[in-house]
Input
Amino acid sequence: AWLLKKYGETMRVFIEKNLGWLSVVFLLLLIGGFAAVKFIN
Output
């Protein structure tokens, strides 16, 4: 939401174009973060 306030229309267009990729990247980061925490502990 803050990206939209800060960058406005250009960011909205970018997110709409790349929503699939952004979702995949977010999911991988989330899973990777949990794996890292589990591995460290």
Notes: The two ends are 33 Å apart (CA to CA).
